[in-house]
Design a protein that fits this description.
mainly alpha; Ferritin; 79% helix; 0% strand; transmembrane; transmembrane helix; membrane; coiled coil
């Protein structure tokens, strides 16, 4: 009976299958060679992550004793083992999954494990890589905050010192009026009577306030100069070579000193004093007895004093308004330097150390790329092999083992003995001879 003729389409299909099998075998050889050192490479990555994790843990611990060292080593060793075991599972199991559900489940597990690795290791690696630089960044930001606070406190205090000119103008007004009253050009009564005493009383109050403001100019200048000197030392400490921990201690001492100077500048602001003095200028007036010799003169003194009181109210309102404008200026913020550990500083200023964070995370999550590479490769191998039965992939050794197992279970009958069976005549002949 003639067999079915082989068409060109069948030949092409068989040729493609053979090419796919050869392609799959080639990929298998590559994977076999890569597997020979993948475990070692994964171990090196896990060990490197453990070393940087140890450095990060030590930056968080204050004690330097043996138990602290042992604790840091134990944590870093646990991290290294955990990373190695986790990625070993993923490298073996995830590429072997064939269904979408199983692949999705393992990928979710891999995502959860990656988050756990970042939480327990990567941020400590970043602290080891960029911890000192992050602490220096914190010092630099603190210096900038203190400089802003010092300049704001000084500018507000200087604005208060500028009220001296307003006080001087009010004082000069009353002094001029007292001179006019002395010559008789104000109330019409020459001499130093009741009106003159009221005017000199208020000009003396304003003179005292003016002198008090002027006396503080030197203190304000000295406090600001000292603050700038402290800021210069703090800037030097933020960039000075050496261990950042020791520099942080000296930086904290300078920060306390600078906070005191900023508080002193706030206290030297005379705006509240001018506001109170302005209220006293208007409300606290000691009126002398009218000393004119005639009723007409006393009436003139009374009228002039009333005008002086109106003028006092106007000048007091002007000074109060000027003092209120100074007080309305924004106050310097309360700055308090808070020392940060390397790990805390790396987290706070993470945006300034993106490369360090990327390196710290990459050293832990780089095996994820290998997992995806193996997934693609195993999918290509399965596609190249096509749909094959067990018989298509059995080796000669596997076939022999299967035959031996079948014989041991009497599943394959034994071959008949090649010796022919004895005939009845032969048996009778043997008995006769006997």
């Amino acid at each position: 009976m003639a067999g079915k003729p082989v068409t060109s389409k069948d030949a092409s299909t068989r040729s493609g299958e053979r090419e796919g099998v050869r392609y799959a075998r080639e990929l298998n050889r590559h994977i076999t060679w890569l597997d020979s050192f993948t475990g070692v490479a994964l171990g090196v990555l896990a060990a490197a992550s453990g070393i940087y994790t140890y450095l990060g843990v030590r930056s968080l611990l204050d004690d330097t004793g043996a138990w602290t060292t042992f604790a840091a080593l134990s944590y870093s060793l646990a991290v290294s083992v955990g990373i190695f075991v986790f990625w070993s599972y993923m490298l073996r199991l995830l590429p072997a999954m064939r269904t979408a559900a199983s692949r999705l489940g393992l990928m979710l597990s891999m995502a959860l494990g990656s988050v756990a690795i970042v939480a327990m290791s990567s941020w400590l690696n970043a602290a080891a890589l960029a911890g000192a630089a992050a602490v220096e960044q914190h010092l630099a930001h603190t210096v900038q905050d203190y400089q802003t606070a010092l300049e704001r406190a000084h500018s507000k205090t200087i604005a208060g010192q500028a009220l001296q000119r307003d006080v001087a103008r009010a004082r000069e007004t009353f002094q001029d009026l007292s001179a006019q009253e002395d010559s008789g050009n104000l109330s019409g009564l020459a001499g130093r009577g009741a009106v003159f005493r009221v005017l000199t009383q208020k000009s003396a109050e304003l003179q005292g306030l003016e002198d008090q403001i002027a006396a503080q100019e030197q203190e304000v200048a000295e406090a600001f100069a000292q603050g700038n000197a402290v800021l210069s030392r703090m800037r030097a400490l933020s960039v000075e070579p050496g261990a950042v921990e020791a520099r942080s201690v000296r930086f904290a001492e300078e920060a306390v000193r600078l906070s005191g100077l900023i508080a002193e500048l706030r206290q030297l602001n005379v705006a509240p004093l001018v506001a109170r003095a302005s209220a006293d200028l208007r409300d606290s007036v000691v009126l002398p007895d009218l000393d004119a010799g005639s009723a007409e003169g006393r009436a003139s003194q009374q009228s002039t004093i009333a005008s002086v009181m109106t003028l006092l109210a106007d000048r007091a309102s002007t000074l109060e308004t000027a003092a209120a404008e100074v007080q309305a200026l924004p106050d310097a913020e309360e700055i308090e330097y808070t020392p940060l550990s390397a790990a805390d500083a790396v987290i706070r200023y993470a945006g300034n150390f993106v490369p360090s964070w990327a390196g710290a995370i990459a050293i832990d999550l780089l095996p994820a790329v290998l997992v995806f590479v193996l997934m693609v490769t195993h999918a290509a191998i399965r596609q190249g092999n096509g749909v094959q039965t067990v018989e298509d992939t059995m080796t000669v050794a596997e076939m022999r083992a299967a035959l031996d197992a079948a014989r041991s279970l009497d599943m394959i009958p034994h071959e008949p003995d090649p010796t022919p069976p004895e005939r009845d005549s032969d048996k009778r002949h043997v008995r006769a001879v006997d």
